[in-house]
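Weekly modeling sync, notes
Attendees: S.R. (lead), two postdocs, one rotation student

Agenda item 3: backlog of single-chain predictions. S.R. asked that every request posted to the team notebook include the full sequence so nobody has to chase files. The rotation student volunteered to paste the first one in as an example of the format we agreed on. Action items at the bottom.

Example entry:
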Amino acid sequence: MDQREILQQLLKEAQSKKINNKEFANEFLKLKRQSTKHKADKTYPTSVAQRPKNIKKNRYKDILPYDHSLVELSLITSDEDSSYINANFIKGVYGPRAYIATQGPLSTTLLDFWRMIWEYSVLVSADLKWGR
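Predicted structure, as returned to the notebook:
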């Protein structure tokens, strides 16, 4: 089954669950459990995000980008840490780098955020949480 078929199947499932909110709640609970298991098992390492110079660049200390799909910025100095941003590439229908997921920038990472947008020619879309 190719990715397009998977997405179409997912859409059908979401539409059928739309009627029953409890099913959506169960899906998110499963995701939370899976995430907890991956963190405990270290299935997807986050060692770059945990480097001392990068820790302060993470808005949330418990939501770190995975090393295997980390977005890297071009170096603007000889300091390797200037290439770090809390962001991951997400696979899409047309390839492994179809989307970028990132946290809202901190005041200290705002320039890095816009540098990433520029370097990767990103179309920006805001996802608001709780009306913020």
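Discussion: group reviewed the output briefly. The helical segments are 3-17, 21-41, 52-55, 110-119.
Action items: rotation student to repeat for the remaining queue; S.R. to check formatting next week.
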